[in-house]
Amino acid sequence: MERKQFLSKGLTALGVAFVAPMAKACSKNDVIDSETEEAIDSSCTTTPTETEGPFPTKTPSSLVQSNITGDRTGVVLTAKIKITNKNNNCAALAGAMVDVWHCDAAGNYSEYGGSGMQSTNYTSVHWLRGRQTTGTDGLVTFTSIFPGWYSGRAPHIHVHVYNASGTSLLVTQIAFPTDVCNTVYTTASPYSSRGTQDTQNSRDNVFSDSLSLELATVTGTISNGYTLTHTINVNG
Amino acid sequence: MKLIQLAYRRVIDIESKAHWERYVFEDSYKELRMQFQLFNTDKKHITFSQLVAQVPEAEKLHFLVSAAIAGHISLLGKIPYVQNTLGITVLPFNLYRFEIIDSNINNKNAHRVAVIFYSAPVVLHEIIGEHLLVSLDPDNNNNERKMVQTELIKLQPFLSIYSIQYQHHATSIISNNILS
Fold it and tell me: What is the CATH number of domain A76-234?
């Protein structure tokens, strides 16, 4: 592809070159940019070096990551969430974007502190929030920590499922088995300083009428971590 | 001695030309349209300002959408557009804040956002006309009678002093030079 043509396609073309975040500003010899051009250049000639300004690469959203732990500490939790399509006999739904977010061991969510002009450190602010896209098996996997709890709610993980074009399909939450929560909240650091949750699933105003569909299977131990498995059925 | 943090606010819209601004514009618009749906449950609202007026929780969108652009900001290294009098961007930063000024999920042209960059602390020595005489390494200003490298930065629209800290050195020559 001609350089000008490549550039004229602008952000769409660059979108192909999703790369890991880079610590330093990129030089004009940026490897990723060159690779992109070479990959779509059928003539197999040496890619010319050109100046494209200080920002030749496009970085992915910091939401798009499988390990969402950030700087939080707690018991390791691997969340395996399968998205199925009610409109296709509950077959696995590929290409769905799945956002998850949950609170830390102390019951806090990542967000801007305060209001107005307060500054934010971008390197650590989006902890315990992430996005993955389902494969053909409908699965996404996140590595995180076991969520804590806050007053008035049973422990939970928020989930927002979009189709491949970004249209919202479902906003829901995943509940945790009480016996596992009791173990974590009474024996594992730093959860044990707060003790057990003040709201049971059966008394939670989100889960109480639909717990059977929203309760995850959670197995494991505090030392080895826990694995959560859950299936979410959407109108895909 | 005075330590200050400078803040610079850059508004980004459909007219923005720099690569990083285009990325911030495109990615923040895409992310806003996705996360807008979380708060627009009755699908009645089209603009960001409408949504926030009716659903105060939607103020979280400033933060939530910022995740889509944090990578672009991290590549900048220095606060853009704030140059010394030699025309070089010199102010490092590691803090920023993203805000959505307004947007319309059906009209990208109405999407306007801003990024406020906060500099690392710098030493303010003097104000010379419309220029701030600063040095970038606060740890290197404790020795009196020592030459320190300085930068002359012009005050300009959207550039402000965000915070200030007074540090007193009884015998410091520097303290005699600064504005009191």
Answer: 2.60.130.10
